[in-house]
Amino acid sequence: MSKILIIEDEEAIADLEKDYLELSDFSVTIEHDGAKGLKCALKDEYDLIILDLMLPGMDGFEVCKKIREKKDVPILMVSAKKDDIDKIRGLGLGADDYITKPFSPSELVARVKAHMSRYSRLVGASPQHNDIVEIRGLKIDKTARRVYIDGAEKNFTTKEFDLLTFLAENPNHVYSKEELFRKIWNMESVGDIATVTVHIKKIREKIEYDTSNPQYIETIWGVGYRFKI
Ligand code: CA
Questions:
Q1: Regions of the chain short of the pLDDT cut 70
Q2: What is the pLDDT of residue 124?
Q3: What is the model's pTM?
Q4: 118 and 57 part of one domain
């Protein structure tokens, strides 16, 4: 879980930010004072810091500068005044982004997420966060959209990948061709559902050892398909 430090003296704002970030699965710590916030930022590891400009103890300019001397954690500066934002930019304190009060909590969450993904790419941490589905010898890397059988990569088209991933993530459930067509092709079931059969056949040729005796995707005659685990 990614950790965020909020340095903000207005408790109502800090609590609101915390609530919204926690809803998005972030772990949040709040400090209400500049000097304490700085201490906390330097002592513990955070994935991002949300820093208010006007703070008791030590203002946001100073806190930002001091954090930057030691750490390259993303810093999102918050200010009530547009002029302050221009000033922060002018000073080149090393803040990564700026947001002006009042802002909507969802805007804040969106900004935070954008910085998280950029930062994790920069430090090369993203491969560890790849979303992987692994069933016996089959491995689906959802982030990279790659499929491996016993470590060997198989080439999948977009729809083949989507169909296989959907079935693998919902194992032991029988889906009709109509349901699969609606889910994967995003259309009402007026299209040609035979395309599902064709895709299943292609997927099997890539992942099954013996397509006449499939180990992964089973045909339930007269009903549809089921991913076996
Ligand atoms: Ca303030």
A1: 89-90, 118-130, 187-191
A2: 53
A3: 0.53
A4: yes
pLDDT for the residue 85: 73
| Residue range 155-167, pLDDT digits in tens | 999 899 999 999 9
Whether residues 112 and 182 share a domain: the answer is: no
Environment class of residue 16 by beta-carbon count within 10 Å: exposed (0-12), middle (13-18) or buried (19+)?
A: middle
The residue segments making up the domain with residue 218 are 132-227
Ligand 1 centroid from CA 17, angstroms: 14
| Residue 100 and residue 196 in one domain | no
Provide the CATH number for the domain around residue 46: 3.40.50.2300
Task: Kindly give the distance from the C-alpha atom of residue 101 to the centroid of ligand 1, in angstroms, as a whole number.
Answer: 10
CA 53–ligand 1 middle distance (angstroms): 6
Closest by alpha carbon to 94, among 72, 79, 110, 78?
Answer: 72
Residue where one domain finishes, among candidates 124, 153, 177: 124
Query: 8 alpha carbon to ligand 1 midpoint, in Å?
Result: 6
Alpha carbon distance 47, 62 (integer Å) = 20
In the reported structure, the alpha carbon of residue 49 is separated from the centroid of ligand 1 by a whole-number distance in angstroms of 15
Ligand 1: centre distance to CA 97 (Å): 17
The H-assigned helical ranges of 71-193 are 82-91, 105-122, 158-169, 177-185
Ligand 1: distance of its center to the CA of 62 in Å? 14
